[in-house]
Design goal:
By secondary structure, this protein is mainly α. The chain has four helices and no strands. It has a single domain, classed as Monooxygenase (Up-down Bundle), CATH 1.20.1280.290. It is 82% helix and 0% strand.
Length: 84
């Protein structure tokens, strides 16, 4: 693994794990009033597109970061709609 892939995986780990506390909080409290539906919808679309791009260019850090983050944001988005 070269240093660019390592750098990309480190960045992916940071950005992906940054969504975990929010997802856990929403799951535990079921409180989504202060979350922006538009922001999470747009973010989910963007992550889906980045994930597809990562697949097309065969870039592991892009695929991992955006695929995992997409899961977290879709969970938050689903709960935002469910508990609205």
């Amino acid at each position: 693994m070269n240093w660019l892939t390592t750098l990309g995986l480190l960045a992916a780990t940071c950005t992906t794990t940054s969504f975990l506390p929010q997802a856990i909080k929403v799951i535990k409290t079921r409180h989504t009033k202060d979350l922006s539906l538009g922001m999470y919808a747009l973010l989910s679309i963007g992550l889906c597109l980045w994930f597809a791009y990562g697949i097309l260019v065969n870039d592991l850090p892009l695929m991992m970061a955006n695929g995992i983050t997409l899961i977290f944001t879709v969970i938050i988005l689903f709960l935002k709609i469910k508990y609205k």
